[in-house]
TrEMBL record:
Lineage: Bacteria, Pseudomonadati, Pseudomonadota, Alphaproteobacteria, Hyphomicrobiales
Name the record gives this protein: Terminase
PANTHER family cross-referenced by the UniProt entry: TERMINASE SMALL SUBUNIT, TERMINASE SMALL SUBUNIT-RELATED
UniProt GO BP: chromosome organization
UniProt keyword terms in alphabetical order: Viral genome packaging, Viral release from host cell
Pfam families: Terminase_2 (PF03592)
Organism, as annotated: Bradyrhizobium japonicum
Organism superkingdom: Bacteria
């Protein structure tokens, strides 16, 4: 069975932020029931398959796949904080930081000027730089989940053959075969 135009719109909208309620609203479903309709649509086999196929196509298009994600997480987890400082222990200017630090490992930078004197004699004598780092433990959790070591898994589920037909169809789509 083919998707309706509204279901196709839901699939496209869902891929934006993976929020089923907001995707349902943006696709034209009732705002009052969107919190119920979104999850219902996600449970619909054809919608689920269309989302999986669209994610696969997007991954191929962007060349961002699980290997890329894992390499990036490992690179971030192994980034050395010492790379941000010079040999005197002073923080380097941002343009001297390794690229991995400039791409999100630093969550914030605060610079406070230090002054001495008062009135007209007041002059800046230095500054204090404070770095707020992003959550590196979260990266390790993601790596642990990604490589299936289950080190940080909240729940362990056992599954059987449910969804097997969908997975086979998706694998066929990936391989470009019909039968």
């Amino acid at each position: 069975m083919a998707l309706t135009a509204k279901q196709q719109r839901f699939v496209a909208e869902y891929l934006i932020d993976l929020n089923s309620t907001q995707a349902a609203i943006r696709a034209g479903y009732s705002r009052e029931n969107a919190d119920k309709q979104g999850p219902r649509l996600l449970a619909h086999p054809e919608v689920k398959f269309a989302i999986d196929a669209a994610k696969l196509q997007r991954s191929e298009r962007t060349e961002i796949d699980s290997d890329w994600m894992l390499r990036r997480l490992v690179e971030e987890a192994e980034a050395d904080l010492a790379d941000l400082y010079d040999e005197r222990g002073d923080l380097k200017s941002i343009d001297e930081w390794p690229e991995i630090w400039r791409k999100g490992l630093v969550a914030g930078l605060e610079i406070d000027a230090l002054y001495e004197g008062a009135g007209e004699d007041r002059r800046q004598v230095g500054h204090v730089r404070k770095i707020k780092l992003s959550d590196r433990v979260r990266r390790l959790e993601l790596i642990g989940k990604h490589v299936r070591v289950n080190a940080f898994q909240d729940q362990v589920s056992v599954s059987g053959v449910e969804g097997l037909a969908d997975r086979i169809a998706l694998a066929k789509l990936r391989n470009g075969s019909d039968g």
